[in-house]
Write a structure and sequence with these properties.
Elements (H helix, E strand, L loop, with lengths): L2 H32 L15 E7 L6 H9 L8 E7 L5 H14 L3 E6 L6 H11 L5 E4 L10 H5 L8 E10 L6 H23 L11 E4 H6 L10 H11 L3 E12 L5 H28 L4 H11 L4 H19 L7 H29 L4 H6 L1 H10 L1 H13 L27 H20 L6 H20 L1
Helix pairs in contact: 1-6, 1-11, 1-12, 2-3, 6-12, 6-14, 8-9, 9-10, 9-15, 11-15, 11-16, 14-17, 16-17
Length: 475
């Protein structure tokens, strides 16, 4: 077997696996367009007691905004309890205490619960608050969220159905237009919240609470085994355990809770690393239980696809390394490669086109910002996703083989320039920049030999790795 044939076979094998992911995205887009909007239920005859939990750790720039927004929720004061679950080690606790004292004096049922050891991290804080919570319904907001006053009134009526265990709202973006990075993040998140969640919910598949901007029925938390901290994604973990226990989740994409996107690459990497590592840990923990359960086969298949989605990142890294050699192999004379080149075109379209359609649909249907400008930024979002492959592959490996690790919070600035919080590390910057140079060389090679068909794909990969690496150095 000649080297061009061997390279193309390896390249096409990886591309075929990624095309399965692409076909799955295509299914989600189809399911999204075929959904039927739910009819909102009537208001309950009596509004239930709701506990709102605000897990906070070193959030001096946003904590006052958060507590103020929650205190402004349109809900009877005698039926609203607010818990500020503050594990902070800086002056955030003092800021929280001042706001809590002021609101308490004004008649709000609000309490500051300060832990000094952070056992269990966010899961531990939520469990500590739940142990003394008054409400049968429990809403959760992370520190960077700013819920609208009608949030509870739009979500709570859905709990009239006794089988509903959790209702999730869609995330909005406070700073999507800040720069290219936040714009690209907004596009990637809209793919998840506009398309993914909607498709899963509309087709009866399981989906997850996103750690914030949702309301739990307390009994669903208890039946699922409570908040646990043996993964870094306590929200994903409890979501599947609760649905395994028989509870049904609802997703309301029309209810949007605005939040702050990570403002720099290091913060974004820290967030994505935690999510990827935690999802792999959750897959290790629960996939066996899911397949042994009585859930329908489509639910099991979608749960498996969801929990193992981050395994596509190592495949992207392998594809990246093979790509320049595949370009060179295509230039070799002879008829041996003709069938492989035809298959290459088909697999390429299956691997790439669904992602463009997926995120393009998310941009159009999100209703957030100028659609034309956001669509023009779509290549930057795709490049960002590709450029994160090295960093995310490490997260996948740690999730498979490493210890649980430490819950690293995503720093928030509240729009404050030169805010003091920074993510601890920059990730594998040297590797990312080296891969960017490697692909840049492949671009030069393609130009010199007039192989223009591969140039856009090479440029997308090269740009992604280079901008992720260089932005990590600047942040």
């Amino acid at each position: 077997m000649s080297w061009p044939v061997a390279v193309m076979i390896a390249y096409l094998a990886v591309l075929s696996l990624l095309s399965v992911n692409g076909l799955h995205r295509l299914w989600m887009v189809i399911a999204f367009w075929r959904r039927r909007p739910a009819i909102p239920p009537p208001d309950p005859p009596e509004w239930p007691v709701v506990t709102v939990q605000l897990p906070v750790f070193n959030e001096r720039y946003v904590v006052e905004r958060l507590i103020g927004a929650v205190a402004a929720l349109d809900w009877p004061r005698d039926r609203l309890e607010i818990q500020v679950l503050d594990d902070s080690t800086d002056d955030t606790t003092e800021l929280s205490a001042r706001v809590v004292d002021r609101l308490s004096a004004a008649g709000h049922d609000i309490r500051l619960i300060h832990r000094t050891d952070r056992t269990g991290f966010k899961a531990g804080a939520l469990a500590a608050g739940l142990a003394v919570a008054k409400g049968d319904l429990v809403a959760v907001f992370d520190a960077d969220f700013v819920p609208t006053p009608d949030f509870l009134r739009r979500l709570v009526p859905w709990f009239a159905d006794p089988g509903v265990g959790m209702v999730q709202a869609r995330w909005g973006h406070l700073n999507a237009e800040q720069d290219w990075l936040t714009a690209a993040q907004a596009t990637l998140l809209d793919g998840h919240f506009v398309i993914e969640h909607t498709a899963r919910n509309a087709t009866g598949r399981w989906f997850n609470f996103n750690g914030t901007a949702g309301i739990w029925r307390r009994q669903a938390i208890v039946d699922g085994g409570g908040w646990q901290h043996d993964t870094l994604t306590e929200d994903l973990d409890l979501s599947y355990r609760s649905q395994l226990a028989g509870w049904r989740f609802l997703y309301l994409p029309e209810v949007v809770a605005p939040a702050e996107l990570p403002p720099d690459m290091r913060a974004f990497k820290a967030q994505q690393h935690r999510w990827a590592k935690g999802s792999v840990q959750t897959a290790r923990k629960l996939l066996g239980r899911i397949w042994r359960s009585a859930a329908p086969l489509p639910v099991k298949l979608e749960a498996t696809t969801h929990l193992t989605a981050n395994f596509s990142y190592p495949l992207v890294v392998v594809l990246t390394l093979l790509l320049p050699f595949a370009v060179a192999a295509r230039m070799q004379p002879g008829e041996t490669l003709t069938p492989l080149l035809a298959l290459d075109l088909v697999l390429f379209l299956l691997a790439v086109f669904p992602f463009v359609l997926f995120y393009g649909t998310a941009v159009v249907r999100s209703g957030a910002g100028p659609t034309g400008r956001r669509l023009a930024r779509l290549p930057a979002a795709l490049a960002l996703g590709l450029g994160m492959a090295v960093s995310q592959s490490r997260a996948v490996a740690e999730g498979l083989f490493g210890p649980v690790g430490v819950f690293v919070r995503t720093p928030k600035t509240g729009g404050v320039a030169a805010a003091g919080y920074r993510a601890m590390g920059r990730g594998l910057v040297g590797v990312e920049l080296l891969v960017g140079c490697y692909l840049g060389g492949a671009c030069v090679y393609a130009v010199r030999h007039g192989y223009w068909a591969s140039l856009p794909f090479l440029l997308l990969f090269a740009t992604g790795y280079t901008m992720v690496g260089s932005s990590s150095l600047r942040s």
